Each structure stands twice: as structure tokens, then as C-alpha cells.
Amino acid sequence: MNKKYIPDLRKRIDKKIFTKTDVPIVVYLAVIIAMIVTWNIRQRFEIAGDFFVELFGVAFTLFIIDILLVSSKSKRWKIVQEDVDYLIARNINRLRDGLAIRAFNFQPDVNHSLTIREQQANFLTELESLEPKQLETRLYEAELFSTGSYAYFNERSDDLWDVINMKYAEFLPPILVSQLINLHTHLKDVCGHINQYRKSERFKEDQAYYQSAAIKGISYNLKQILHLVNILKKEGYSEPARTVFEGK
Which pTM was predicted? Predict the structure, then answer.
């Protein structure tokens, strides 16, 4: 459960300039070693000097091409970065809303000193601290195991999968991609448990078995999901829909 995360990851990515090489480091090492060898034997073999010059040219060409590729990637990413970040943040915010209401029957107090989003954040943080067995008693079963919730969580899972597989996902930090993949997987598992729970409607004689197994399974997955959405919020990936007044 104690997975690593980077506070304000979204802001750090925004300030980052792409420096990752597209040429495997082993290629540079091979060229450098070959240059060292040819330089050391140039006195004994006249042709070694020519090889050294050729290798130097190869190394220089690789370096220049690599710099140009990295620069090109950086420019392309800067064009779409804000939109991709917003897309991820909106998906996570929508999931947090649905998770609080559909799974745990969150009911905010509009007259509270805290905003609804702040109340929701505290609510989800509190739930994350509970063990799966304790979460079982907090489930809003009537809504959570409905066909509507199945469709909702399945759609959220597909939304995340679309982000993971989009063209510009290669520019995202591996830690963020890993979190999104894990979130997608746990959401699919939630859908599986909802289906299992609903089997109790067809198999009345085994109703208790199907419901109990589904509740235990879904509590585990919801615990993981709570952990991930809270982490993603700390990393800056949870944002409500922008209004016409805010724009970009």
C-alpha cells in the first residue's frame, strides 16, 4: 500500500525540460571504448588513426541527432501538455466524485465551513485509513452493486485506458503511468465484483455466498483505489471542470 509518489508531480513535469536520450547509452559506451582502443594502438597500426577519426565522426553525428530528437519531442509535448494534464486531472476528479457518492454514500453539508471538495477530500482520506474489513461496513450496497454503478466504474476505467494508450502517453512519467494502470485494473476488478454480487439474483440458494464474496473482494479493490486517487490528488491530478469564466 505504501507506494511511492511525488508531491505536486504535475507542477514538476510542467517545469521539466526533456533531457532523456533516444540513443541507448550502450551505443555511446561502445563508441567511446572503440575510440579509446584505436587511440592507444594508433602508433602500431597506421589505420587505427583513420578509424579513430571515423569513430569520432560517428559519435558526433549520434550526439547531434539525439539533441535534435530530444528538442523535437520537447516542443511537441509543450503543445499538448496542459491539455493532457487537464484530461487526467478531470478523470481523477470525476472518479473521486463517483467513488464517494456511489460506493460510500457521501452526503456533504452545504452549510459547512469547509467547501464540498474539502469535505470530500477529508471523507476519502478517512476511508483510506480503514482496513478492507472495516470498509465493508461503510459500503452503500444499494447503489454500489447496481447496473448503473457497473456502467459508471467501467466507463471510468475505459477513460483511463484511453489516456494510457494515447499517443502522448510516452511523455508521461513512468510513476504516473503505473498509477493509472493500477487504477484501471482495480476499477475493472470492481466491475467484476459487482457482476458477482448480482449473480445472487439468479442463484437464490447461493445468494449469501455470492454477496459475501463480492463484498470482500470489492472492499479490497476500493481500498487500493482510495489510496491511488488520494495520491494522484497530492500529485496535482484532481481538478473540477473549468467554467466559462475560467477558460484555460
Answer: 0.74
